[in-house]
Amino acid sequence: MNRNSFEEEINISQEINMIWNIANKLRGPYKPEAYKDVIIPMTIIRRFECALEETKQDVIDTYKKDKETPRQILCNLSKYDFYNTSDYNLKKLLDEQDLIADNFREYIKGFSDNIISILENLDFDKQITKLNNTKRLFGVIQEFSEIDLSPKTIDNIKMGYIFEDLIRRFSENANAGDHYTGRDIIKLMVSLLLAEGCDDIYDENKVITILDQAAGTGGMLSTSSNHIHSFNESADIRLFAQENNPESYAMCLAEMLIRGQPADNIRLADTMVEDCFKNIKMRFVIENPPFGMKWGGKDAPDGVEDAVKKEHKKDNSRFPAGLPGTGDMQMLFLQSAIDKLDEKKGRCAIIENGSPLFKGGTSSGESQIRRWILEEDLLEAIIQLSEDQFYNTNITTYIWIISKNKRKEREGKVQLIDASSMYEDLRKSLGKKRKKISSKNRETITKLYNNFEENEYSKIFNNEEFLYKEYSVYQPLQRSYGITEERIKNLIMKKSLKSIYDQDKVTKLEQKETELTSKEEEQLEKNYNQKPLYNKILTILKENISDEIFLSKKEFNKYLKEIFDNNLEKKHLNNISKGLSIMDKNAEIETKKKGTTSDIWDENTGILYDKETKDTEIVKLSENIDEYMKQEVLPYLPDAKAFFEENMTKKNPSIKTGAEINFKKYFYTYTPPRDLEEIEKDINKITNELKNLMEE
Hints:
alpha/beta, Rossmann fold, 3 domains, 4-stranded antiparallel beta sheet, 25 helices, 20 strands, 14% strand
């Protein structure tokens, strides 16, 4: 494969400066953040106008002869999947200044329905009125009529750069990962995506499908398509996109139409709500979903939470592995991307931040999604990029390579590549983007991936390296018992007697603003009735405060029966003794009693274990728990025991098998602290400098 087939850097400064100068003339009627409402639709209109210029008269002549001329005939004449039947263009609109708004609307009505739909989604008609009322419309049309955006002058690649630079400028305060991925990163993603497992795409007239579910202006699709065509001109590349931002969608659709892609393959839709291409599996998926975007809760977009949960419950769900926390939809995009891949040859490159690598506990949605991806052997590689690579965030990002056709050497393995040092500094920052991946950097990273060898920057692991079991570690139940002032305070604090009287529950019910239910009234009445018993118990305990300590629960319960004159139920006595107990290694080790089912105990020895001593240990699937305990736990807690408490038979299963990918751990390099003498010299130097300044 030709890895140098990507276009080199393209200079768009002239075109951008011209467009931005027009934007600045909107100052006054428009605030800077609203410039896009005018500039984006006008740029799109001018782009279409320039594309149609050579064929437009043929379209007009045919249309005037028969206004019922089929759409396809007009498209054939225009040589695009769109057309315009109006006699007007931007230049001609200037001839009738007093009628310019009405004529502009007539001009727009002359476009085919797919173009009109784009402008309607942008609510551009409203801007025509505003521009006309503020005496800006004539000037804006005049300026745009002089910009050459013809596909012959500015190809799709260059136009993509222009669109994305405009979006970047208008979206500097957007969410991290929302919108726009630099072309340098896109090129790297495409290079990695096509580096292996793609022999079939060289075939003559090969149909190749590519999907981006968070398409932005379509940069990823354009770059992928161009790269494939550079070594297989006969390839039939079909591009599919979903994008929920109207401005981005409009730009994406505009360029895809000029590329000859069907408009129906480019959808204004929220990927979390719907899959617009249900019956199509994709050869490639490439995307950068938004980071930290909520899919659930009050701040989530309308309808998204219900749609996601409904989709998850389906038999053939796009989210088969589970749902992540509602605060971030990245791993929903990841699952959806996998779902869209061709079952035999599908490959995916997707950008994520650090959160999907490790966020969430063992049973969390995030952990279970990672587990599913690893157990299905879908993850090929993760590549860490440097900070400062995106226009609106400086956080570290990662490229995940997902594959349904791993080569034999990669089966059951995951490659981690640390490319965080592989970048060049930009001469001038673009928003928060201060670094870029050069062609040399891209070649180096792709080679690391393709070689599939371990070195300073590349590590290879079995999938099991990232899968783990969560064990609960307990110490034997050894407790001393007694009635002291401190122990009574602990009993109250631990709410050991809440089964008799629960002050918090009472307060909550008494302060409830709405009318109590019958059940709540019963609960309140029960607490009122049992409060005297609660007070009596505390009184008797306080009357029997002493220094005597019991090392046997049996003996202490016998003592409690005596001071309460055998008037308390057994369950209450047990709750009292538990509340008055503390861990004590001098106490006798308690063992399981016949009929007990709720306690934690060793089936071989009968020894009971103390729930209050619970700790957890994360143990790799590849590690033996006994060996792990011997090395990591028993030297410090010689009598501790590990229990694997997973139970999948419950209505709400207790999941104790999970996955995390602690990426940075595998590339950690120890840096020794500075010498104390060196630090002291620096401190003295600074102190002397401050002293001299004060003396001045």
